[in-house]
Amino acid sequence: MLKAKQRDKDTDYLFLSAMLRAREARMLTADKAQRMIDAPSFDEAAKLAAECDYPDMTGMNAAGVEQALADRRAEVFAELASLCAKKEIVDVFRIKYDYHNAKVLVKAEGAGTDGEHILSSAGRIPPQELREAYLTDTYTCIPDRLAEALTKAKDLLARSGNPQMADFAADRAYFAELLELAEALGSDFLLRYVRLLIDTANLRAAVRTLRMGKDVDFLRLALISGGGVGTERVAAAASSGDTLAQLYTATVLEPAANLAAEAIGGSMTAFEKACDNAVTEFLRGAKIKSFGPEPVIAYIAALESEITSVRMILTGLLAGINRETLRERLRETYA
Questions:
Q1: What are phi and psi of 234, to 5 degrees?
Q2: Helix (H) or strand (E) segment spanning residue 129
Q3: pLDDT at 117 (0 to 100)
Q4: CB atoms within 10 A of CB 160
């Protein structure tokens, strides 16, 4: 683990920033995403994705698309980790997949199934290594917080029989480690990004709790500490319902919060889209920096969002989903 606030010089990122700025010019734009959706065939849409540095996915099925996109992510992560002044900046994005794998392992054991096919290779820990550590209760090569999360989630599932409780425990550990790493790296932009992710997760948790008709005690189990809006403020606002939107006034989450009431009583599509768009809007603030950690952080985060959009379009076309439905689900692009 890094010591707290070990700041790099922005010039340490001069070459990498310039390289990623050049790549941004080839990222998925709103216009190209629309053209993919309107393409006359899946193969034509896949060719448009290839123009954005994705592998040739023509002729693939949904499983092939998933694998190609996973490989693309893994390649970029590995490349940037080797070029970054601190590889831990890339770890900020890898951590999510370690905790995804942790949740898969715990729930698969609880259900008596094998979740190996949905383990991700994008984390810091190879999935088979994590699986072996979990099955043998040998965590010497696993980060302490991740090991603790696995143990706690497994215990919660065994005692409660409720996979959601195990998920809550893993999510709290994930965001705690993420926040700790962001603070140690000493980047204000990164720290604000992580806090926004926590605020977004908490806003979503409040809306989903109210949709399910659960009480505020249940919500408190789902809320994450460390965001810009305190968990008790979110819990109090959710219990009164009509004040939830007011918590996020004058923040990038204001448009999403204004859709909360609609999402509680109806479709979640517009609300979920607005939550993701808020994060993209924040990332655009990195465009004013010519070099430094900000362009690197923004590029990786934007790539994650782009991969989600490419997957949604291509697998949607394969599944025969209506193009207007795909258009409604499409998030804003960073480029």
A1: -65, -45
A2: helix 127-136
A3: 85
A4: 11
Buried b (16+ CB within 10 A) or exposed e, 263-275: bbeeebebbbbbb
What does 144-204 look like in DSSP terms, one character per residue? HHHHHHHHHHHHHHHHH--HHHHHHHHHHHHHHHHHHHHHHHT-HHHHHHHHHHHHHHHHH
Sequence length of the chain is 335
Residue 11's Cβ-count burial label (10 Å; 0-12, 13-18, 19+) is: exposed
The model's pTM is: 0.91
Q: Are 257 and 203 in contact (CB under 8 A)?
A: yes
Instruction: Report the C-alpha gap between 311 and 331 in whole angstroms.
Output: 12
* DSSP per-residue string spanning 201-249: HHHHHHHHHHHHT--HHHHHHH--TTSSS-HHHHHHHHHHSTTTGGGGT
Helix axes 30-38, 293-318, angle to 10 degrees: 10
Q: Tokens 């008596």 correspond to what residue?
A: 112
Distance (Å, rounded) from C-alpha 307 to C-alpha 34? 15
Alpha carbons 98 and 174: distance in angstroms, whole number: 9
CA atoms within 13 A on the CB side of 33: 25
Take residue 109 and report the two structure tokens written for it. 């054991």
Dihedral angle computed from the Cα positions of residues 263, 178, 7 and 281, in that order, rounded to the nearest 10 degrees: -20
Dist CA 213 CA 206 (whole Å): 11
- For 25-34, the pLDDT digits (tens) are 999 999 999 9
Q: What are residue 26's phi and psi, to 5 degrees? A: -105, 5
Q: Tell me how far apart the alpha carbons of residues 184 and 293 are, in angstroms, rounded to a whole number.
A: 14
Closest of 327, 313, 264 to residue 49, by C-alpha: 313
Q: What tens digit of pLDDT does each residue of 87-114 get?
A: 999 999 999 999 999 999 998 888 888 7
Tokens, residue 251: 């923040």
CA pair distance 49, 57, nearest whole angstrom: 8
